[in-house]
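debug: dumping io for the single-chain case to check the tokenizer round-trip. Nothing else runs in this session.
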Amino acid sequence: MTKKQLAKEIIERLKKAYPDAGCTLDYDDAWKLLVSVRLAAQCTDARVNVVVEGLYEKYPSVEALAAADVDDIEAIVRPCGLGRSKARDISGCMKMLKEKYGGKVPDDFDELLKLPGVGRKSANLIMGDVFGKPAVVTDTHCIRLTNRMGLVDDVKEPKKVEMALWKIIPPEEGSDFCHRLVYHGREVCTARTKPYCDRCCLNDICKKRGI
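debug: decoded output
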């Protein structure tokens, strides 16, 4: 089975296992997803979803958050960890959105990368979830699982994993596939315990069962 064939089979099985999988960060506007994905670094999505409620209550718009004092932002987002750097990036990002993009999040990948605190993973998440464009979000679940499954071969660098997956994942499937990997990585193919291969929908085609 080629990697493309393996990818196709994995995609179809994960669709059946997690038909409603989507982004686990709560947002109702593109700029809020930018904020949340920055806060999610080394923090759970569940905690981020709680913390941002207080942030948006005090600063309900790009303009309001852009005008906020970094210390005030940090005080609110501190429970997510790395408070100072995250607050600084959020402030800089909102300022740039306001001043360069009229308060709107750009729908261009390279333009997104110019925003403070936005890397390839965040930019891909925005492109896929907000704008419905092809995207491959190489978070820790994606990297761990695609290595275990044999879609990539001992590749741990996020950009290299992303580039390898672009070659074998149909563009229209990439975003949803990565969301399903998150669900599968949390529920079955776990990181902190031995994977539950006995109840995995991929156990007969996975390259590294139980590893």
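debug: round-trip ok. The CA atoms of residues 34 and 122 lie 7 Å apart.
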